[in-house]
Amino acid sequence: MATPLAEILFITIAAVIALSQWLILRSTARGMQHKAAQSADGVQRGSAGRALEWTYAIVPAIALVFLLGCAWRAMHPTAVEVEGVAPSTGIES
Questions:
Q1: How far is CA 84 from the centre of its chain?
Q2: pLDDT tens readout for residues 13-67
Q3: Angle at 20 between CA 18 and CA 25, to 5 degrees
Q4: Phi, psi of 6 (to 5 degrees)
Q5: What is the DSSP track for 43-69?
Q6: What are the phi and psi torsion angles at 28 (to 5°)?
Q7: pLDDT tens across 6-21, in order?
Q8: DSSP line for 62-92
Q9: Residue 8 CA to chain centroid, in angstroms?
Q10: Which of 8, 18, 63, 69 is the most buried (most CB within 10 A)?
Q11: How far apart are CA 72 and CA 60, in angstroms?
């Protein structure tokens, strides 16, 4: 069971991580626009390079969301508790 201090710290850290990931994605978009504007011949480069750059920006963000979800479930193990009901015929405990 998580303490109130642990929950406050978790939410604060999650907000900081979300802000930093948003800034990384914004920086990636701006950097790609800047590269396109500086190309000497004006020809757009292949989409494979852009896709790879977005992959390097988005995959860590998705991994962090997964890890934050796992950490939240570890802090609140009883939040997802399933209770089964045994059939009433033929089973003795």
A1: 32
A2: 999 999 999 999 999 888 877 766 666 555 555 677 778 888 888 999 899 999 9
A3: 95
A4: -65, -40
A5: PPPPHHHHHHHHHHHHHHHHHHHHHHH
A6: -60, -45
A7: 899 999 999 999 999 9
A8: HHHHHHHHHHHHHH-TTTT-------SSS--
A9: 19
A10: 18
A11: 18
Coil, strand, or helix at residue 41? coil
Q: Measured between alpha carbons, how far is 3 from 75 in angstroms, rounded to an integer?
A: 9
**Four-CA torsion 5, 66, 16, 71, nearest 10 degrees:** 10
Q: Which tokens hold the place of 72?
A: 């939240």
Other C-beta atoms within 10 Å of 1: how many? Answer: 8
Rounded CA separation 6/93 (Å): 39
Q: How many CA atoms lie within 13 A of 89 on its CB side?
A: 0
Listed in sequence order, the residues at least 6 apart from 70 whose beta carbon sits closer than 8 Å to its beta carbon are none
**Short-list 30, 27, 81, CA closest to 57:** 27
Determine if the pTM surpasses 0.85.
no
